[in-house]
Structures are given as C-alpha cells and as structure tokens.
C-alpha cells in the first residue's frame, strides 16, 4: 500500500470538467462488521470488496490476535469463524484499534462478554474520544470494564461468565453504541433492547439478520433475544457512500460535469448527504437499484448544479454525520446562508469537526461562525488559497483537498496521513479525475 504524505497541496486546474464513472472502495462500516461478525460466527464467512484501510485492517488484526484465522484468496477474505465462545485472549491481553472509533466500540461489545481479560487502546485521537457512552450500558449488562478517569480509552475488561438483559434508552443516535450493545447482547441470558433518539445506521441489524440472528426493529427500538449464535455467510461489501461524498460535491460544483458512482450503498440510514445536497439544489439520481443482503445498492449519478444555502433539517443529521466536513465546503461555495444546528456529535469525531473546519475555512476567507452545536456559513465568496490543518482527521484532509479545486491559489493541507484510515486510494482517484494534488 502506498503511504499518503502528511502534507499535501491542492492546486486549481483551470477549465476542468469531468464525465466519468467512479468506483470508490468498500464501505467502512460494513467492512468492520464483516470481520467481527465473521470471526464469532460458526463456519467460514467469505468477504469480497473489503475495505483495506488502516481502520478496517486494525479490526481484522484484532480478530486475528484472538485466534480467528483470516486468509485471502484472490480478492476475497475468508474469515474462519471460531464461534461465539471460541475467541482466545489476545497476545499480552492488548488490542490496538489505531484511529478507529468503530473498531474500538464494536470490539468492546464482544470483549466485555469474554471469559478472559483484555485491554483496548488507540492512537492519541481515539484515546481522547468519549467511551462512557458504551461503558455505561455494558456495565448495566454486568460487564466489568474500566475506562480512564476522563471516561476514555484504554478500556480494561475483566473476564465474566455471561451478561444479562438490558432495555437501554440511548441518549445519542449512535450506531457504534447500538452495535456495541447488540454484540454484547449476543452473550446475554435475556432480552436486549435499545432505543435511540433518531435512527443511526442500521448495518449491524441487517448483517446480524443475514448471519441468522432474529431481531426486531420497531421504529427507533431494536430488540433481540440474547444467546443466539451466528452462521457464516458470504458478504459482498458495496461501495462507501461516505467516500463518494467528496466527489459528489466536486461533481455538483464543477461546470458541465457528471460523475456516476458504481454500486454505492444507499441504505436510507446513510443517504443524508444526498438528501442535503438535493435540498441545496443538487441534481442527483439513482439507477440500477437492487437490494443485497438487506442493503440497498445503486449507481448514483451526480451532475453539475447551482447550489444554494439551506437550514439543514435535523432529521438528516444522523444519516449524514460523517459527511459534514465536505458539506461545509459545498455550503461555502453555494449561494446564500447554510445553517447547521443540533450537531454536537461533530465535536466528538476523529477531531472536533466544527472547529477544525471553521479554522480552515476562515483561513480560506469563508464568512462563517461557529455555534456550540453547529455552524453558520455564508456562501458565495471566492475561496482564497492558504495553509490549513487537517488535525490528523481523514475527512477534514480530503474536504480541504477538494476545496483546492475551487480556490484562487493553492491550498496546503497539513496532517493528512490519516486519509489511509478510510480511503487509501483517494489520491489516485483524484488524479484519475484530473485534479492536481501534490
Ligand atoms: C459508524 C458510526 C458513526 C460514524 C462512524 C462509523 C459505524 O459513528 O461516524 O464513522 O460504523 O457504526 P457514531 O455511531 O458514533 O455516530
């Protein structure tokens, strides 16, 4: 894998138009889950289209360190499931989740229920992200877990025999919290249910059903009988809508352009970015729609359009949660004001994404101001060039690199290396589209 440099410079290419098909790599959320669920299933789970990024490879390594054999044949991974009770203690009891909140919070659900001790930790960013959101429900289920005084990782788990039932009212719409509770729930001796304030992505529910687990989703409540086991399946990971979002915004903003994204996962709990762009005036349509393993897939066609500012409806926040950095760039280049509120969760991601984007956009001359739970962006001014800091956050880095195409001078982006965590071939797709990033 080619390493991505920590400093990248994005230069405007004059008169660029694009008319192309783009295949972005596999969905990150589904890739993580394929390794974890495959690892605790009975039998061999075949995974094609797995996202070979830093985050997902860390989760794969975590499962391998607990005795799950994972081999690769051609482009397919074979996860030799050891069954729910077949995991072994990892070497020296430690699991490194790197930069990945999903990896850590989902693995925590499994580790909390094991008959061995373990510790999960991550990099500086991950070790500063909030973990009481998962330790609280896990403790309610009888897990023995210790976070730091600040409620952060490393998380230390002590062995337990099994977990108990829970009916949890989650204060946040978070698929990571929901998935953690459901995974722990597989080891519970009773009924497990969780209600969330808004629907977060539901890949765990879809995939558990695929692995033969019975669960019901009723509005915002998911309920499952504990103790069920998983049967191996074949998984085809569709393309990641979150990675495509950078190029969706590019296609909207460039004149006379069209990009068609092949085989995109358009699960309605993930398409907030499309709904928001459409409200801003984007021309986006679906073709070749199908459903595979409970996930809606389509080719998505995005054409040039004149974007305008909007008040972002709260109903789309959870389903666009990872796409706000690039949506802020769209808003900065759109006509009129965009206002986002009720998006406090953006401050809890790989960086504080409200402040990181605000700081960079200010440098580029964008008229914007921060709110405690969002941002107001007055779009329409031409972007200046300048030096911005991606703060080791992959999505901040990619957003400012796309912005470089629309700035009067080059944009230098520092601390970009973590693009590898979610989108290792981002730069080669950029150059294939004619963008100039050096
Ligand atoms: C993810 C859930 C989201 C998202 C993350 C992936 C998942 O986090 O931001 O990139 O795969 O479950 P939250 O559940 O914390 O919102």
Structure notes:
With 438 residues, this protein is α+β, with helices and mostly antiparallel strands. The protein has two domains: 7-26 and 238-437, Alpha-beta prism (UDP-n-acetylglucosamine1-carboxyvinyl-transferase, Chain), CATH 3.65.10.10; 28-236, Alpha-beta prism (UDP-n-acetylglucosamine1-carboxyvinyl-transferase, Chain). It has helices spanning 28-40, 54-65, 101-111, 132-140, 175-185, 203-210, 241-253, 272-279, 324-333, 353-363, 394-403, 426-432; strands spanning 7-11, 19-22, 42-48, 69-73, 76-82, 94-96, 118-121, 144-146, 155-158, 166-169, 191-195, 215-218, 221-225, 234-236, 258-265, 283-292, 295-303, 336-340, 367-371, 374-379, 386-389, 411-414, 436-437. The chain has a four-stranded mixed sheet. Strands 2-15-17-16 form a four-stranded mixed sheet. A four-stranded mixed sheet has the order 4-5-3-14, with helices on one face. α11 links the parallel β21 (386-389) and β22 (411-414). α1 runs parallel beside α3 and α2 (54-65) runs parallel beside α3. 51% of the residues are buried. The mean pLDDT is 97. Bound molecules: shikimate-3-phosphate. Shikimate-3-phosphate binds next to α5.
TL;DR of this structure?
The protein is of the alpha+beta class and 438 residues long. 28% of the residues lie in helices and 26% in strands.
Query: What overall geometry do the principal axes of the alpha carbons give?
Result: globular
- How far apart are the termini? 18 Å
Q: Strand percentage, roughly?
A: 25-35%
Q: How many domains, in number, for the residues?
A: 2
Number of helices: 12
Bound molecules: shikimate-3-phosphate
CATH superfamily of the largest domain: Enolpyruvate transferase domain
User: If you consult CATH, what is the topology of the largest domain?
Assistant: UDP-n-acetylglucosamine1-carboxyvinyl-transferase, Chain
- The appropriate CATH architecture of the largest domain is Alpha-beta prism
Radius of gyration: 21 Å
Supply the CATH class of the largest domain.
Alpha Beta
What structural category arises from helix and sheet content?
Answer: alpha+beta
